[in-house]
Specification:
This protein has a two-stranded antiparallel sheet. It contains twelve helices and two strands; from the N terminus they run ααααααααββαααα. The protein has one domain: 3 helical TM bundles of succinate and fumarate reductases, CATH 1.20.1300. The N and C termini lie far apart (80 Å). The protein is elongated and about 85 Å long. β1 and β2 form a beta hairpin. α2 packs parallel to α11. It has 272 residues and is an all-alpha fold. Bound molecules: protoporphyrin IX containing FE.
């Protein structure tokens, strides 16, 4: 049976599929980090960025197509990882028993576990920032902010993503969870990028070392970029003054809306 499966999807194809989907995810992570670093600019910057992401040409179809494509990459990456691990175990049970973990470094040994924790992180992250329901309902607690547009176009009022990020990372538990997940992600990326180069044929010893250094540098770069955001909020209170100001503004708006509603209800009663 396994022979039939191997014919259907040879190891090399699995390796290429794993490397290809991994490369797309590596590029996504880099792009997402670059986008997120706008958090260090004025709040309007990342708010305008989030607005434009949600209003890409052809949205919402284009946005969903990108999301589905990323999901397909995650699915392919996991499926190929499971198939390749099974295949290796079936092919070399004795070799593993003899060699143990001697040769593999920490990142390599923990790939399945770090992969699973990253998956759990991504699910939590999407629930927190895309669905906006964890740990509190940001759709109800965060209001809108205005950002200016160029070329004399009217200003836009849009969901305040900057305030949501400050609020999210003000929770120390969540920030620590992010930092742990980012550390695992970067270890996973370091080993993954190095293996990807091997899969696509860079097996020469000199290149192996160079590419390993490049992969380590990439992992650290991504870690520092992402980690700087929660660290800036918990350690330096970045954005907290802005959040306090906006929360007071939204509370005043809610109160005003309630007063208007009560007045309308009173008028309605009196009118009857
Ligand atoms: C400090 C770290 C991170 C921050 C501050 C952050 C921030 C955000 C924010 C604000 C959104 C929602 C954007 C919006 O809907 O307006 C988002 C969405 C998302 N993030 Fe992150 N992110 C971080 C790390 C990561 C990592 C490491 C990954 C993947 C490994 C990731 C994957 C995603 C995905 C898949 C989405 C959903 C995009 C969509 O709306 O379809 N994020 N992130």
């Amino acid at each position: 049976m396994s022979a039939e499966k191997k014919v259907l999807l040879p190891s090399l194809v699995k390796k290429y599929l794993m490397a290809g989907s991994g490369l797309i995810l590596v590029l996504f992570v880099l792009g997402h980090m670059a986008g997120n670093l706008q958090f260090f600019g004025p709040p309007e910057m990342i708010n305008a960025y989030a607005y434009h992401l949600h209003h890409l040409p052809g949205a919402p179809v284009s946005l969903w197509a990108i999301r589905l494509f990323l999901l397909l990459c995650v699915g392919t990456h996991i499926a190929m990882a499971v198939l390749l691990v099974k295949e290796n175990q079936a092919a070399r049970p004795q070799k593993y028993a003899k060699q143990g973990f001697r040769k593999a470094d920490y990142a390599a040994r923990t790939m399945p576990m770090s992969g699973l924790i990253i998956l759990a992180f991504i699910i939590f992250h999407i629930l927190q920032y895309t669905v906006r329901n964890v740990p509190e309902n940001y759709n109800e607690t965060i209001g809108e902010a205005t950002f200016e547009q160029a070329h004399g176009l009217p200003p836009i009022e849009y969901f305040d993503v900057y305030a949501m990020m400050v609020k999210g990372f003000s929770n120390v538990g969540i920030s620590i969870f992010y930092l742990v997940a980012m550390a695992l992600l970067c270890m996973h990326l370091t080993h993954g990028v190095a293996s990807m180069f091997q899969s696509i044929g860079f097996r020469n010893e000199m290149w192996r070392k160079r590419l390993h250094t490049l992969a380590v540098a990439y992992g650290w770069f991504i870690f520092i970029g992402f980690a700087s955001i929660p660290v800036s909020v918990i350690a330096f209170g970045h954005g907290k003054a802005y959040l306090a100001e906006k929360e007071a503004e939204w509370a005043a708006q809610t109160q005003q809306a309630q007063t208007v509603q009560l007045a309308q209800a009173d008028n309605f009663k009196e009118g009857r």
